[in-house]
Design brief:
It is a single chain. This protein has 3 domains: about 5-85, Winged helix-like DNA-binding domain superfamily/Winged helix DNA-binding domain (Arc Repressor Mutant, subunit A, Orthogonal Bundle), CATH 1.10.10; about 85-160 and about 270-295, Periplasmic binding protein-like II (D-Maltodextrin-Binding Protein, domain 2); about 165-265, Periplasmic binding protein-like II (D-Maltodextrin-Binding Protein, domain 2, 3-Layer(aba) Sandwich), CATH 3.40.190.10. Helix content is about 45%, strand content about 20%. It contains 10 helices and 13 strands. The chain has helices at about 5-15, 20-25, 30-45, 60-85, 100-115, 130-140, 200-210, 225-235, 245-250, 280-295; strands at about 50, 55, 90-95, 120-125, 145-150, 155-165, 165-170, 180, 190-195, 215-220, 240, 255-260, 265-270. Helix 1 (about 5-15) crosses helix 2 (about 20-25), helix 2 (about 20-25) packs across helix 3 and helix 5 (about 100-115) crosses helix 10 (about 280-295).
């Protein structure tokens, strides 16, 4: 067994096919089959079961695969640290970004790193805060840009910006022409929101109970684009930061009205995994995010 063989096992598990893995590696399928067979013989059990569409991990494979992933990740980090020891940041940095910030933040960060540290590669995951929290905790992410509601940051987090929250609706809606909307006026309004558990849902439910109103969550989705599309169609409204809809607002396709009484302030935090130490490349990305996130969060629609 060697790392190359384990990388082949991981690729086959990812693509679910010996032939697709062979094409990705640029080798004959027979070599992939031979590699898998050698490891199965050494370990005394099957790693994969054949299906009508390819292969899937066997029960034995499912038990062993997390250890393979961990070993490959440790090997990659060792390789990065060896390169970093020469003083040049190098390697893959895994970051999580909120959907509302992805289209502004990721291109800016990518351009910054290409100019200052071309050896650093980004692997970006887009997700809501709860999803990113889980991946930070498990070590699948190094850094994440996350929404927080309520007082104070969590441990090992920096608050980089604070933004308001808006009711997003079609421009022809009666509320669209108002400068602000009081929270109690959301009573019975059809809304499209992320499903629970979710920080925004928790704070909305808390204020609804305090004010004795009922939020009509007509649709739950885990996609920012779908939330906006439903609002564009006028079937339901949604609740987002202005950054998420600034283009649509500037084009007159959507309206955004700030929610007040109470103000629904969200803090944009920068979280770091406690699962493993950050590489030099990750520490560089962290410093660049500290500079870029406040700039992106404060940008106004054109």
């Amino acid at each position: 067994m060697n790392l190359k063989q384990l990388e082949t096992v991981a690729l086959v598990a990812e693509v679910g096919s010996l032939s697709r893995a062979a094409r990705a590696l640029g080798i004959a399928q027979s070599l992939v089959s031979r590699t898998i067979a050698q490891i199965e013989t050494e370990w005394g059990d099957r790693l994969f079961d054949r299906t009508g569409r390819g292969v899937v991990l066997s029960e034995f494979g499912k038990r062993i695969f997390p250890h393979i992933e961990l070993l490959l990740a440790q090997s990659a980090r060792l390789n990065d640290e060896v390169r970093n020891a020469a003083g040049i940041p190098f390697g893959v940095v895994r970051i999580g970004v909120l959907p509302s910030m992805t289209r502004r933040l990721v291109p800016a960060l990518f351009a910054d790193l290409r100019a200052s540290a071309p050896g650093v590669r980004l692997r970006v995951t887009e997700g809501f805060s709860g999803q990113l929290d889980e991946q930070l905790e498990s070590g699948h992410l190094d850094i994440a840009v996350i929404n927080r509601y309520g007082p104070g940051p969590r441990q090992a987090e920096d608050i980089l910006a604070t933004v308001s929250t808006y009711l997003v609706c079609p421009p022809q809606h009666a509320l669209a022409g108002e400068p602000t909307v009081a929270f109690h006026r959301l009573d019975g309004v059809p809304l499209v929101l992320p499903p629970t558990p979710n920080g925004l849902r928790s704070i909305l439910d808390q204020h609804a109970r305090q004010q004795g109103i009922v939020l009509d969550v007509a649709l739950e989705v885990e996609s920012l684009n779908t939330m906006k599309e439903v609002a564009l169609c006028g079937h339901a409204m949604t609740i987002l930061p202005l950054l998420a809809v600034d283009d649509e607002v500037a084009e007159g396709r959507l309206a955004a009205v700030e929610i007040v009484d109470p103000d629904l302030l969200r803090s944009i935090a920068l979280g770091v995994t406690q699962h493993h130490p950050l590489s030099r490349a990750a520490r560089l990305v962290l410093s660049r995010l500290r500079a870029l996130v406040p700039r992106v969060a404060s940008a106004k629609p054109a």
